[in-house]
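Hi Y.,

Following your request, here is the sequence exactly as I used it, all 206 residues.
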Amino acid sequence: MAAVPVVVFSDFTCPFCHVTEAALRRLEDEGLAAPRYAAFELHPAPAPLGLPSADDVRAALPLAEELGTRLNVPRSLPRTRKAHEAAKLAERKGVGRAMREALFAAYFGEGRDVGRIDVLVELGAALGLDATELKVVLDVDTFSGAVDADRALAARIGIAAVPALVVGGGADAELVSGAQPYAALRGLLQEKGGREAPGANAPGPA
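Below is the corresponding structure, written out as tokens. Let me know if you'd prefer a different format.
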């Protein structure tokens, strides 16, 4: 069975996105999922930030524990545009998955501010990215247009909240909203993988 394409709309301050991406990494390792990630900034400027939701973290805890994923209530709620831009560069450099995992771990595991450029540069450098290049890319908004394009794609599909997954390709593609248990995602991918048409393409980030 071929891996099923999954377009993942996600934000790094969303605990449900954190557990969803953890499940998808496991499914990718099992050869069932071929995820591609699209940026969805939950709290874009100039909207007020507020505080992280302890209720949301508690609600996501059972899924996190099932996956062995660390999930604490963060101290603050940062903007994530720069984190999404850093993830775009990391994807281009071949360490996109590792960068996403590091961003979630830094925020939900260590309580770090993933909206700060210095934090993003440190995380990227630990994965082998050139620190100077990453800082310049973030300073000059190199991937800002790509982040906007992902949000525009979400609007065209009708996505207003994350996590949201477009599972499968072509006419068989299915929109799945909200965090799903690992077993449910696995069952859906197995079902889709059994009837994916050769050459079918899911909508993807621009």
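Confidence is low (pLDDT under 50) at residues 196-201.

Thanks again,
Q.
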